Amino acid sequence: MFIIFGTRGLKHTVKDSPVLTNSCPSCAKGNLVNKLYRRWFTLFFIPTIPLDEIDRFYECDRCSSAYNESIKTILQQSQSEINETQKQANLKFAKALIASMTHMAIIDNDFAPEEEREIMDVMSKFPELKSELTEIYENVKVYGNKNNQVFNYLNEARSQLSSETLINILAQAAVVLLADGSIEKEEENLMKEYLIACGLPKEMYKTLIEKLKLKDMAKLKEEQLN
Ligand SMILES: [Zn+2]
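^ thats the input. predicted complex w/ zinc ion below
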């Protein structure tokens, strides 16, 4: 008889941690709930033994924005300081997203026009960062991950963003990999390398894939509506 075992990361609510009511800096109304990712040992794909904690963060129950645990201290600062921190976090988010999207788009040596359009679409959501993001895009398009530049953007983002946000960045970037309907072994390995560059264990891969499928479905729906 075969015994199938493995490990994976699962999200939990931290029960004894107070909810930060109406404090979400993104939507201003949502409550921030303390969450954590824990590594689990799985037997026949069922989580059976809880292992170590991967990361704690806060998640908005209204807009799903996720924040590093430092948000608790940041919220005690003045509004202008909160805005400044949010601006920095936004910049790190955008840089990491454009760098990894561009890298994933060129990885198969076939940079499709749809992929370029998708990257331009994301870039247009950050008009104030246009020149910085264009530079990253042009650079990664030509040099890929040379000198670890893509991984460095992810690593920088990790210092200020939550694990949840980083997984969202990777899932959004990896939608291009799902274009042919399946994930090749090399693509799986690449995504695990991205996770490690973010300072996250490779066990988060399954969480990433689940998010990726949700995003892909949302994209399909959007395309059907257009
Ligand atoms: Zn919110």
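Residues 79-106 form the longest helix (28 residues).
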